[in-house]
C-alpha cells in the first residue's frame, strides 16, 4: 500500500484539498483504509477538477491507494474522453481503461451522420493493450425520449459486437431500460464478460444476472436511504459476480451524498456492502478483487 504522508483518515486527501464540486462543496473526508486493497472498476478522472493531467491523475491514484484502493478502470463516454483514457493509460500503471459512446450521445451522433465514424474510432482505441472494456454503453430511457430509442439500441448492438470481436468486457449503462437491455443482450449474444455498471435493478434483475453470469457493480447508490431495491438485489447477488465502483465524481455514498466523489471513497461503499451482507470485510475485499481481475485481467 502506498504510504501517502499527505493522507490522514478523516481528513480530505491532499490531492483533493483545492477542488470542490461546481456547487462549491468540498470533497468528503478520507475513510479508514481497507484491510485488503480493492479496485474501483468505474471512474471518470476526466470529469474531476484538476485531475485530467498526468500529475493530477497520479495524485488521485496515490490518495486512492492510501485508502486501500489499488487501481481503477478509467471509463470513456465519448470520443474525447475515450482518447483521453488511452492517453492516460500509457502514463499511470494503476489504471486500465474502457472506451465507448454513451447511449445518450448515440442518437445525437446518428442525427449528425457521425455515429459510424465514431464507432470505428472507438474500435481502434479499444485495441490498446490496457483497454479492457467496451463501455459505458447500453440504454438510457430517462434522458433520451422515444425518438432516440432505435438509435440507442443500434449503438448498443454495435458495441456488443466490438466487445465480442475484441474479447473485451462490456460495461453497461442501464437506466430505466432493464427489460430491453436484457433482451438486446440475448438477441445479440452477450460477450463472455458483462458488467452492469452502477447496478440499478432490483432482486429480479440480480437473479437474471446470476443465471447468465453477468457481473453486478455496486456504487455509492446502494448506501442511499431510498435505495431499498439495490440492497435487496445485493442480498441475492451471487458473491462471485459482485464488483464495486465509484462512478466518480458522481454518486458519492451516504452520508456525503451531493458532494463530489473520488476513488479514495470506495471503502465507504465496501464497508456498507460488508455490513449488509454480514460478511467479513477482508474476505469481501478479496472476493471483489478476484472478481474484478477475472473480468478485466491483471493490472501489472
Descriptive report:
- The protein has 300 residues and is α/β, with parallel strands linked by helices.
- The chain has helices at 54-66, 79-89, 106-112, 115-125, 149-166, 178-188, 203-212, 228-236, 266-277, 281-296; strands at residues 38-43, 69-75, 95-99, 131-140, 169-175, 194-196, 215-218, 242-244.
- It contains ten helices and eight strands.
- Strands 1-2-3-4-5-6-7-8 form an eight-stranded parallel β-sheet.
- Helix 2 packs parallel to helix 4.
- The relative contact order is 0.15.
- Residues 1-5 have low confidence and may be disordered.
Write the layout of secondary structure elements.
Blueprint: E1 38-43, H1 54-66, E2 69-75, H2 79-89, E3 95-99, H3 106-112, H4 115-125, E4 131-140, H5 149-166, E5 169-175, H6 178-188, E6 194-196, H7 203-212, E7 215-218, H8 228-236, E8 242-244, H9 266-277, H10 281-296
Parallel strand pairs: 1-2, 2-3, 3-4, 4-5, 5-6, 6-7, 7-8
Helix pairs in contact: 2-4, 7-8
Give the gist of this structure.
With 300 residues, the chain is of the alpha/beta class. The protein is built from 10 helices and 8 strands.
Amino acid at each position: 500500500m502506498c504510504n501517502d504522508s499527505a493522507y490522514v483518515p478523516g481528513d480530505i486527501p491532499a490531492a483533493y484539498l483545492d477542488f470542490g464540486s461546481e456547487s462549491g462543496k468540498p470533497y468528503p473526508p478520507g475513510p479508514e483504509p481497507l484491510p485488503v486493497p480493492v479496485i474501483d472498476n468505474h471512474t471518470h478522472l476526466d470529469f474531476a477538477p484538476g485531475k485530467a493531467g498526468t500529475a493530477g491523475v497520479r495524485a488521485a491514484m496515490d490518495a486512492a491507494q492510501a485508502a486501500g484502493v489499488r487501481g481503477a478502470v478509467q471509463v470513456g463516454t465519448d470520443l474525447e474522453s475515450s482518447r483521453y483514457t488511452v492517453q492516460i493509460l500509457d502514463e499511470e500503471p494503476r489504471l486500465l481503461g474502457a472506451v465507448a459512446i454513451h447511449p445518450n450521445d448515440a442518437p445525437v451522433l446518428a442525427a449528425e451522420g457521425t455515429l459510424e465514424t465514431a464507432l470505428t474510432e472507438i474500435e481502434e482505441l479499444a485495441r490498446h493493450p490496457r483497454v479492457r472494456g467496451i463501455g459505458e454503453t447500453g440504454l438510457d430511457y430517462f434522458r433520451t425520449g422515444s425518438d432516440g430509442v432505435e438509435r440507442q439500441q443500434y449503438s448498443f448492438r454495435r458495441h456488443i459486437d466490438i466487445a465480442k470481436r475484441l474479447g473485451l468486457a462490456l460495461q453497461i449503462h442501464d437506466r430505466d431500460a432493464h427489460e430491453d437491455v436484457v433482451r438486446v443482450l440475448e438477441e445479440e449474444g452477450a460477450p463472455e464478460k458483462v458488467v452492469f455498471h452502477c447496478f440499478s435493478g432490483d432482486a429480479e434483475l440480480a437473479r437474471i444476472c446470476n443465471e447468465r453470469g453477468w457481473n453486478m457493480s455496486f456504487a455509492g447508490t446502494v448506501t442511499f436511504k431510498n435505495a431499498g431495491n439495490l440492497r435487496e438485489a445485493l442480498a441475492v447477488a451471487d458473491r462471485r459476480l459482485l464488483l464495486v465502483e465509484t462512478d466518480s465524481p458522481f454518486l458519492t455514498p451516504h452520508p456525503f451524498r451531493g458532494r463530489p466523489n473520488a476513488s479514495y471513497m470506495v471503502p465507504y461503499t465496501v464497508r456498507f456492502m460488508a455490513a449488509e451482507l454480514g460478511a467479513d470485510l477482508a474476505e469481501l475485499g478479496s472476493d471483489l478483487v478476484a472478481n474484478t481481475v477475472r473480468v478485466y485481467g491483471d493490472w501489472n
